[in-house]
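Anyone up for a design puzzle?
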């Protein structure tokens, strides 16, 4: 199961990397739509009071790295918990 646990973790990380890149491109190309979607996802919280998008290369890289590491960790924990739940006694 160790290989499967790593495969799940790596798959989660890869999926997050793809989502992060697509999301960042959307914020860059369609900032108003991105702000509207953020508003919808945050249950109507008015995101505009926080200012405009500030997408810099550093924000892109650091946000992406932390999101990818978090996704990898979530995948690893999912694999680990799957292993625990499916143990045969």
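Challenge accepted. My sequence:
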């Amino acid at each position: 199961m160790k290989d499967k646990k790593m495969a799940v973790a790596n798959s989660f990380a890869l999926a997050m990397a793809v989502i992060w890149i697509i999301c960042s491109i959307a914020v860059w190309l369609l900032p108003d739509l991105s702000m509207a979607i953020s508003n919808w996802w945050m249950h109507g919280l008015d995101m505009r009071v926080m200012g405009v998008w500030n997408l810099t290369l550093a924000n892109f890289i650091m946000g992406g790295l932390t999101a990818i590491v978090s996704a990898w960790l979530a995948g690893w924990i999912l694999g680990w918990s799957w292993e625990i739940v499916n143990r045969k006694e």
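A detail worth pointing out: DSSP finds three helices and no strands in the chain.
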